[in-house]
């Protein structure tokens, strides 16, 4: 009995594995991966003749966005595609316009059971089209090594996940690049390329290293400044003494007026 029971468990496991594999194959056959650029559109056709289906619905991430009944496509409310859905009742097609990166996800097209039409899945990936690149730079002179220290930052606002590649005087990858170069290197150019699966753009930054002289105080200027201070010091001292005397005289006058007012009272 135990042996027979063990075979039953083995057969059941094999049968379950076969069912799972069959479902995976079926899901792969009914799933289509589509890549689109931001701003483009996506067609979601029902794929059936109007006469062969009485009811169908379009979903995005399990939320209904439209349904088909009585030979008409009806757009649902309260979803992210409001104002961007276009219907074609003749060909039973739904179109999503002005695609955005956040529209990436899985759409499903579900028909009624009488049509024997399996649920179709469309996995949408929306990429932002890279159009603008900026390169910011920060350059400082290092007197200790007689060279310029450079920090560069390449960025694009269209796609935060874009990859960056540097070419030119220095090669590298990533949004940031740090290096040093000397005045003897002359004029140099750094190029940054931002790319994603849809597009790429390149921008360039010219740089030149100039030696910055140290700002030491000229001995003659220092002597002239000291002479001016010494020459002005007597006048400055007299002004301070006069100011103190005026302040004391004003305070003494105010005190007398207060005593006079008290005596009259």
Automatic annotation (TrEMBL):
Subcellular location: Membrane
Transmembrane segments: none
InterPro entries hit by this protein: CD2/SLAM_rcpt, Ig-like_dom_sf, Ig-like_fold
GO annotation, cellular component aspect: cell-cell junction; membrane
Superkingdom to which the source organism belongs: Eukaryota
Predominant localisation class: membrane
Keywords of the record: Glycoprotein, Membrane, Signal
Protein name: Ig-like domain-containing protein
């Amino acid at each position: 009995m135990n042996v027979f029971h063990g075979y039953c468990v083995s057969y059941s496991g094999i049968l379950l594995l076969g069912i799972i594999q069959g479902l995976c194959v079926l899901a792969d056959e009914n799933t289509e991966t589509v890549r689109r650029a931001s701003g483009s559109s996506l067609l979601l056709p029902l794929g059936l003749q109007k006469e062969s289906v009485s009811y169908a619905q379009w979903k995005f991430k399990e939320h209904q966005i439209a349904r088909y009944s009585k030979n008409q496509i009806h757009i649902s409310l309260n979803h992210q595609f409001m104002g961007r859905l276009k219907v074609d009742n003749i060909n039973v097609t739904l179109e999503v316009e002005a695609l955005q990166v956040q529209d990436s996800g899985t759409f499903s097209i579900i028909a009624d059971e009488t049509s024997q039409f399996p649920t179709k899945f469309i996995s949408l990936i929306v990429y932002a089209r890279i159009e603008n690149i900026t390169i910011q730079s920060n350059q400082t002179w290092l007197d200790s090594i007689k060279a310029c220290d450079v920090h560069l930052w390449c960025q694009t606002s269209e796609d935060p996940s874009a990859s960056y590649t540097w070419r030119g005087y220095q090669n590298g990858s990533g949004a940031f690049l740090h290096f040093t170069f000397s005045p003897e290197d002359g004029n140099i150019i750094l190029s940054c390329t931002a790319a994603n699966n849809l597009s790429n753009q390149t921008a360039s930054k010219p740089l030149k290293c100039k030696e910055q002289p140290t700002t030491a105080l000229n001995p003659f200027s220092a002597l002239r400044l000291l002479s001016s201070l010494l020459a002005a010091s007597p006048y400055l001292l007299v002004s301070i003494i006069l100011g103190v005397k005026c302040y004391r005289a004003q305070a003494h006058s105010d005190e007398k007026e207060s005593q006079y007012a008290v005596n009259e009272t």
